[in-house]
Specification:
The structure holds two protein chains of two kinds. By secondary structure, chain A is mainly α. Chain A is about 70% helix and about 5% strand. Chain A has a single domain, classed as ABC transporter involved in vitamin B12 uptake, BtuC (Orthogonal Bundle). Chain B is an all-alpha fold. Chain B has a single domain, classed as Orthogonal Bundle (ABC transporter involved in vitamin B12 uptake, BtuC), CATH 1.10.3470. Chain B is built from 14 helices and four strands. Classes of the chains: A mainly alpha, B mainly alpha. Chains A and B meet through helix 5, helix 11, helix 13 and helix 14 of A and helix 6, helix 12 and helix 14 of B.
Chain lengths: ~350, ~325
């Protein structure tokens, strides 16, 4: 890598961010003009309330998932199981929190530990048994929700523990607590990825696994670690999801969120083929998805029909990022007489 | 003479062994299991899964993946129900639905081929789009009460099997689609091009195979199969429902993988997929027969089976690689 690469990559990261940020800005501008009271924020009991805050709050689950998913996708992998892992983590926490001798911390630690185990399981399959990521994580995606239902006996388990409820509904510094969780996770991930060599290793493995291995990188270990991270992030997201509704619903917790998370990562500029990754980009992608969803709800679009515009945005963003489409577009514009 | 088994056939044999074991196990455990009625129900109840899985097999053989299956089934079934309610003859509605499905698949294939977009993303967008469009067509479940459905399909087209037993028309559709799929995959140029494409699309291109046309045709075929599954869904439930078949594509993919097809493309069998579908159906009926087990055990069992076949494929691929290395 060239000596000025730090500067060069910062420039590249900014260039990558332009499309998702522009899309988000466009959407917000639309809302500013056409959706009433969209930017109305008020302070009640020292807490902020309003649509933008709601977007941050509701988007936090996908943001958490997207952070872990970014690392996995950077190694040219994918994790389909995060939604099911969310359900498992929520089920474990809800089951344990009111057991005698348990309580908040043991329940949360157990939930995160189980989520980590799920990530480890995926990591072992992908890194050490060389199963294709889609298939390896498909196993847990199919079976995981069954496991979560087994844990809750098919029931919806409610809880009243104040601290567990705080995770998804509390406020810190005026902002909803999940936002703090996202910020903390981003900080940890960014420090690990950018202040240590780990990020470089991940990108090297995603770019060319064989070359990375020949260069002395423990490619398997790196892959394994990214899946473990994704599991942990899914655990956190699962706790927030359960806390939001004060119960563990194994059937619906995190359903299809893995797809939103993958989408957020791709919109953020990280390619599914691996290599360079952009943590902040993924967060912007997640925010874009949530803003779109919220906008549609505020404009009285039925939740059932909402996937249609979402699909169009996905195709548009993917096309804009595809080199083949850009080349065609450039030819088309170039051909036009100026 | 020693019978040599090609290593690519081992997963297929394992699938057959699991299928037979499950069936015999069911027969031994439950006295009513060994009857033609259970067998007929197995084909009839899993017909639309089987049809969708045949389409998914081609996509996976070509090295891609199709996540839009479930939504497309829901969309086409809703479309048919609405059209029939508006007075369109069911046959015309079915024709239109099949055309819509093929066109939808062709569109996804064109995006994937022309702009080199990952099939995972394009079909994911397709999944969202078809799901939403289903709700645009009609927001909830809609029954179909047309003589064609109530009499022709339900009674006249069912094949008598002796006694009072009939092979439902849905099962016949499954068997016919399966036969067409088998022929297409193993006895046509198109089938060979699909295998070559999945194995190494670069090499297929250099060999002069029509890569672009084949890839778009594969997704068109998958769209057609999903739409056909939607048609059979309306036969089976006599209704269309935009909220149905959520996560159905995963069942189809699971059936393909259990049937011995590698998700990396280029290796697999349409016949294996049929066995995979029957295995999924058998697990379901075994759990129903047992009575006290909850439905979530189905998912866990399917997950474990997937894992077993992954491990098996892993071993087989490693062994064939070692053999190739020792030959050199």
């Amino acid at each position: 890598m060239r000596p000025d690469s730090a500067q060069a990559r910062r420039r590249e990261a900014l260039a990558r961010l332009i499309w998702p940020v522009a899309a988000l800005a466009l959407l917000l501008a639309f809302n500013l003009l056409f959706t009433e009271r969209f930017f109305h924020i008020e302070v009640r009991d020292g807490h902020l309330y309003g649509t933008p805050i709601d977007i941050l709050n509701h988007g936090s689950k996908v943001m958490l998932l997207a952070l872990g998913m970014t690392l996995v996708i950077a190694t040219a992998g994918v994790d389909l199981s995060v939604g099911a892992v969310m359900a498992i983590a929520g089920a474990v926490a809800a089951q344990l929190v009111h057991r005698p001798g348990m309580g908040f911390w043991p329940a949360v630690c157990a939930a995160l530990f189980v989520a980590l185990l799920a990530g480890v399981w995926n990591g072992v399959l992908v890194a050490y048994f060389r199963v294709q990521p889609i298939v390896a994580t498909l196993v847990l995606m199919v079976a995981g929700r069954g496991v979560a239902q087994l844990l809750t006996d098919g029931q919806i388990i409610t809880f009243t523990d104040e601290r567990l409820v705080f995770l998804g509904n509390g406020h810190l510094l005026g902002l909803p607590f999940p936002v703090t969780l996202v910020a903390a996770t981003l900080l940890v991930a960014a420090l690990l990825a950018r202040r240590t060599a780990l990020g470089l290793f991940i990108e090297a493995v995603g770019d060319n696994e064989t070359a990375a291995r020949l260069a002395g990188i423990d490619a398997r270990g790196v892959k394994f670690a990214t899946y473990a991270c994704a599991g942990l992030c899914a655990g956190l997201a699962g706790l927030v999801a359960a806390s939001n509704i004060k119960c563990a619903d194994s059937n619906h917790a995190g359903l299809f969120l893995e797809l939103d998370a993958i989408l957020a990562v791709v919109i953020g500029g990280t390619a599914l083929t691996g290599g360079r990754f952009y943590l902040v980009g993924s967060l912007v992608g997640a925010l874009l998805i949530q803003t779109l969803t919220t906008t549609l709800y505020m404009r009285d679009v039925s939740a059932d029909v909402a996937p249609v515009p979402k699909a169009l945005v996905v195709v548009a963003v993917c096309l804009l990022q595809a080199p083949a489409f850009r080349a065609e577009l450039a030819r088309l514009i170039g051909r036009r007489p100026a | 003479m020693r019978v040599r088994i090609a290593s690519k056939h081992i997963p297929l044999l394992a699938t057959a062994a699991v299928l037979i074991t499950l069936y015999l196990g069911g027969c031994l455990a439950y006295s009513n299991f060994f009857s033609l009625r259970v067998l007929v129900a197995l084909f009839g109840d899993n017909a639309f899964l089987g049809i969708a899985a045949v389409g998914a097999t081609f996509v996976i053989l070509s090295g891609g993946i199709d996540l839009s299956v479930g939504s497309l089934v829901a969309f086409t079934s809703t479309l048919i129900a609405v059209l029939v309610q508006r007075g369109v003859h069911p046959l015309a509605a079915i024709g239109l639905a099949l055309a819509c499905g093929s066109l939808f698949g062709a569109g996804m294939g064109a995006l994937i081929q022309r702009y080199r977009l990952p099939s995972f993303l394009v079909t994911l967008a397709g999944m969202f789009l078809a799901r939403g469009l289903g709700f645009v067509v009609h927001p909830q479940s809609l029954g179909i009460k047309h003589p064609f459905y109530l009499e022709t399909v339900a009674r006249d087209l069912a094949l008598p099997l002796g006694g009072r037993l009939h092979l439902p028309f849905t099962a016949s559709c499954f068997v016919l689609t399966l036969a067409a799929g088998l022929y297409l995959a193993h006895h046509t140029r198109f089938g060979r091009a699909v295998y070559a494409l999945g194995d190494d699309s670069e090499a297929a291109n250099l060999m002069g195979l029509p890569v672009a046309r084949t890839r778009i045709a594969v997704y068109t075929l998958a769209g057609l199969c999903s739409a056909l599954a939607g048609v059979v869904f309306t036969f089976y439930t006599q209704s269309g429902n935009p909220a149905s078949c959520v996560g159905f594509e995963l069942d189809a993919i699971a059936a393909v993988v259990i049937g011995g097809t590698l998700l990396s493309g280029g290796v697999g069998f349409v016949g294996g997929t049929a066995m995979g579908v029957l295995i999924l159906g058998l697990i379901q009926s075994l759990i129903t027969f047992h009575g006290t087990l909850n439905t979530w055990w189905t998912r866990i069992a399917v997950g474990l089976l997937l894992l077993f076949f992954l491990a098996l494929q892993n071993v087989v691929v490693a062994a064939s690689r070692r053999r190739a290395a020792s030959v050199q």
